[in-house]
Fold:
Amino acid sequence: QVQLAESGGGSVQAGGSLRLSCAYTSSLRCMGWFRQAPGKGREAVARIYSPSGNSYYADSVKGRFTISQDNAKNTLYLQMNSLKPEDTAMYYCAARGASATSCPSSVGAYDYWGQGTQVTVSS
Structure:
């Protein structure tokens, strides 16, 4: 059973930066970050598919967020720069099963989830 544990959330002012971390017990091919704002559905923020090294971003975060992975440390990161109030949400780390051959944005495609870490951006 894969376990994921997020950390690094907090409160910042608009324009600030945060780095989220996700410690995992096993490295999987497709891992990603999702977020859910109050009253809204969960959405994909960034994903990384390790066999190709490709990463994918939501249009709303392109150029501001960077996903990376350090398998030596069993940690997935999300560097968030130029934060906006609309980035306020609970952020979740997620992973697909070991047989995954793609890294889609759909929430239902992911098998493992962390408990989430809150990010609050004030104007």
